[in-house]
Prior knowledge:
Blueprint: H1 16-24, H2 32-36, H3 48-53, H4 61-64, E1 65-68, E2 73-82, H5 95-106, H6 112-117, E3 122-130, E4 139-145, E5 159-172, E6 178-192, H7 205-208, E7 210-219, E8 225-229, H8 236-249, E9 251-254, E10 257-260, E11 262-264, E12 269-272, H9 282-290, H10 298-312, H11 318-328, H12 333-339, H13 345-357, H14 364-373, H15 375-386, H16 391-399, H17 406-419, H18 424-427, E13 429-431, E14 435-440, E15 447-450, E16 457-461, E17 471-475, E18 479-483, E19 489-493, E20 501-505, H19 509-518, H20 523-535, E21 542-545
Parallel strand pairs: 14-16, 15-21
Antiparallel strand pairs: 1-8, 2-3, 2-5, 3-4, 4-7, 5-6, 6-7, 8-12, 9-10, 11-12, 13-14, 15-16, 17-18, 18-19, 19-20
Helix pairs in contact: 9-11, 10-11, 10-12, 11-13, 12-13, 13-14, 13-15, 14-15, 15-17
Amino acid sequence: MMPHWEWWGLEPRLGRREFLSWAAGGMLFGGLSGVMGCRALSVRPQSPDEEEAEVGRTTLIGDLTVAFGMHPIKVESVALVTGLPNTGSDPPPSPERAMLLDEMQKRGVTVPHQVLASSTTELVLVRGYLRPGIQTGDTFDIEVRVPTRSGATSLRGGWLMETRLKELAVTAGQLGSSQIREGRVLAVAKGPVLVDPLASGEANRIKLTRGRVLGGGTSLTSRPLGLVLKPDYRNVLYSAEVGNAVNRRFHTFDNGIQKGVAKPKDDEYIELVVHPRYKYNIERYMQVIRAIAVREPAARQAQRLETLSRQLLDAVTAGRAALRLEAIGKDGIPVLRRGLESADPEVRFHSAQALAYLDVAEAVPPLVSAAREEPAFRAYALAALSAMHDYAAYEGLTSLLSVSSAETRYGAFRSLWFMDPRDPLVRGEMMGDQFHYHVLDPGGPPMIHLTRSFRPEVVLFGRHQALVPPLVVDAGGKILVHAAEDGKVTVSRYVAGEPDQKRVVSTHIDELIRAMVDLGATYPDVVQVLAEAKAKGALEGRLEIDALPEGGRRYERRSPDAEQPAPDAEPTPGTGLI
């Protein structure tokens, strides 16, 4: 399971009809009957004897369905980057150039060929991914790069003009030529292009001609999630029973009216609404739903709880058992609480993780401990804490803001923001229309955190951090920062055809950032100044970029006498937690 802050890799995408056709053809379900034992869910009433005979085998939603909508959708376009300091080029003839010229003419550009020929502009290829469960208005990152034959030398300082993102396909045309086929518009994108701040020179040309626009894409569509019934179970009765089972476990409120999250659409598809508790962890949400019992009499559930209780106390089976207890809901809480008393840290973690998604306060101490001490559990523990509504979870995350591990303290900050972005501790402020800015005083070593994914953001862990002069940095070709030995920092803006502007501030990082934004600096400009300052030894504390804990790290089971990891341990590479 991947935590909510990790980006989805490129996967094939199928529409529901294509998905169903593919599955029915046996490509997905070949050999399935042998695995499942060909047990179909009976929709007729069962006698007590029949129920007793099947008490050891409860049919779960995952036995009957597969998840739909869990792959990202790639959206692309050809677009124009402007504002380059003479590092652009005139693109050669190509389908991409023809596509961009057509788009520029539609937008009323009178001399598009002349615009493309300017060294201050560049044709770029744009792409992004609509993640599973994305809603209309949600933002996502955009990747930009120049075509292979481009003469451009850098995209630094550039601005991506608004472009419409679609699903694209390249097809063969006449005489061996290629043609670009377009789908419908699914998103729009624009914003400042962030290039590797330390890249320079011909040796780094590839890095200089690729970049990202953080949060620069805006979805124009909402992606549905759902369950598709496997071929042997496609009828309206199964569809209705699966929908009812989901709705017994999960519901939301619409204008104060309670509504189930599942809506059977036909004999093969059940549409799902994301429950708010799992908004940032779609994959776990789907895992839990598929672990729900389709129909389970009280006697059978009681026996299954006993079995799951034994499995929970075994580290090898604890993860699956905890997930199934979470799917049961409130009746699984007593068993999970017993798991918290285990001497095995893995059992305690899995029990606490499931309890967190059930909003049980006892989950907080073991999850905070896991986030602090065990890198393999850290991402999952922070994700679970962020899903809770209990104040104890808020306090636990706050306590992690001052630890020495960069990924733990920033992960805790991100989790607090997911919990409630309006909370004064993490709300911060918007610097112009450029980036989110947060200044915290949680204690602990000074640190500055920057992002190159999710959204443009600067977080200062420690209000009074300062530059160590001397320092001279040219950012984006327009902003110059000069920190002199006398403790004064001059921030200057130079743009052809405009009067020069200057601001003189102290060496405090907070003052420097505000002066830069006041003079029109973009987020990439701020990132470049801070990154070069760190590279030249001009920052007092740490500078971290995207310091988030990762999922999939290997957990090394230890004997009771083995040495325990130090608090705030940094990660050991590995694979496979759950």
